[in-house]
Design goal:
120 residues; 5 helices; 2 strands
Length: 120
């Protein structure tokens, strides 16, 4: 799994890490039991503070996406009631629509931005 953080896009770095892990789990790239990198290692690799990555991991754990054990590290879990791809897609679309609206973009501009991003 490759995580990329863009400090210029306005999304907090911890949220970018959080969202990319969820996408990887949902897509099957991170199966149940897969170990995430240690916090310090991932922070160093991404050029982030350890606290930033720790927050992403805490949020993932609170939502049931991962579990942390001292000996095993942070591993992907499969809790019951995890939303399916459709639910996650709708949530992402809702969040994007709200951000586009806040930026003053009309529906046509927002859809064009999604099409452009999807192609790249």
């Amino acid at each position: 799994m490759k995580i990329v953080v863009d400090t210029e896009n306005g999304v907090p770095p911890w949220r970018q890490v959080h969202d990319q892990v969820i996408r990887a789990v949902t897509a099957g790239a991170l199966p149940e039991g897969a170990r995430l990198p240690p916090i310090r290692q991932l922070a160093r690799d991404l050029g982030l503070a350890s606290g930033t990555v720790a927050r992403a991991y805490r949020e993932l754990e609170a939502a049931g996406w991962v579990a942390t054990a001292r000996a095993r590290g942070t591993v992907v879990t499969v809790p019951s009631g995890r939303p399916d791809r459709e639910v996650l897609l709708r949530a992402a679309a809702t969040e994007f629509a709200a951000q586009a609206h806040d930026l003053g973009a009309d529906e046509e501009a927002a859809v064009a931005a999604v099409r452009s991003a999807y192609r790249s």
